[in-house]
Amino acid sequence: MSFQQKATSAILAIHLLVYAWYFTYILSQVSELGVEQVEYKSLLMLVIVVSVVLVAVGVVIVGISKPSEIGEVDERDHKVSLLSARVAGIFLTVCVFSVLGLLMSGAHIFWIAQALVVSLVFSEIVMRVTMLIYYQRGV
């Protein structure tokens, strides 16, 4: 498994864990307090910062495990990144249009914000899963 593949796996795992916790917590708060009472802005900022820090630490740990592979990027890595970003971009576009539908229907700002976060997180997850699939297929 190449460095890029290991780093992608680590990033995917971190995103899944962090944002699964976030959405579970936020939805439990909504069920307990109601949409109007949920303080999500500061928590969302904290989760984003924690996610970025954990991704950086995860990639560093992957790099420490085999330092000779760091920086080795070949044509296949570029192709996998491009193809995965295209799939994620299409997914993000569809999600954003769905969020626009929420906005036009007059949904509460809380749900619009959460839908945007879901869109961004899911597009990142789609990109990472797609990258792993392309690496496994040998693109």
Describe this structure in words.
- The protein is mainly α and 139 residues long.
- It has one domain (3-137).
- It has four helices and no strands.
- The chain has helices at 3-33, 41-65, 75-104, 109-137.
Layout of secondary structure:
Layout: H1 3-33, H2 41-65, H3 75-104, H4 109-137
Helix pairs in contact: 1-2, 1-4, 3-4
Keywords:
83% helix; flat; 4 helices; mainly alpha; 139 residues
Quick gist of this model?
With 139 residues, the protein is mainly α. It is 83% helix and 0% strand.
Number of strands: 0
Q: Sum up the overall morphology in one term.
A: flat
Q: What is the rounded distance between the termini?
A: 14 Å
Largest sheet: none
Q: Taking all residues together, what is the mean pLDDT? A: 91
Class based on secondary structure composition and strand pairing: mainly alpha
Low-confidence runs? none
Give me the number of helical elements: 4
Taking all Cα atoms into account, the compactness measure Rg is 17 Å
What portion of the residues fall into strands of 2 or more residues? Answer: under 5%
Estimate the helix proportion, in percent. over 70%
Domain unit count: 1
Order of helices and strands: HHHH
